[in-house]
Amino acid sequence: MSRRIEHTPVEYLRVTDLHAFYGESHVLHGMDFVVNQGECVSLLGRNGAGRTTTMRAILGLTGRRSGSIMLDGKDVIRLPPHRIARLGVGYCPEERGIYSSLSCEENLLLLPKVASGGMSVEEIYAMFPNLKERRHSQGTRLSGGEQQMLAMARILRTGARLLLLDEISEGLAPVIVEKLGEIIRDLKAKGYTILLVEQNFRFAAPLADRMYVVEHGRVATEIERRDLPSKMGLLRDYLGV
Amino acid sequence: MTEIFGFPIQALMGQLVLGLVNGSFYAMLSIGLSVIFGMLNIINFAHGAFYMIGAFLAWMGLYYWGISYWWSLILVPLAVALIGIAVERTLLQWIYKLDHLYGLLLTFGIALVIEGMFRHWFGVAGQPFDVPEGLTGGFNLGFMFLPKYRAWVIVASLTVCVGTWFIIEKTRLGSYLRAATENPKLTQAFGINVPIMVMLIYGLGVGLAGFAGVLAAPVLQVSPLMGSNMIIVVFAVVVIGGMGSIVGSIATGLMLGIVEAIPKVLYPEISSTMVFIIMAIVLLLRPAGLFGKER
Ligand SMILES: Nc1ncnc2c1ncn2[C@@H]1O[C@H](COP(=O)(O)OP(=O)(O)OP(=O)(O)O)[C@@H](O)[C@H]1O
Ligand SMILES: [Mg+2]
Question: Which residues form a coiled coil (chain B) (predicted)?
Answer without folding.
Answer: none
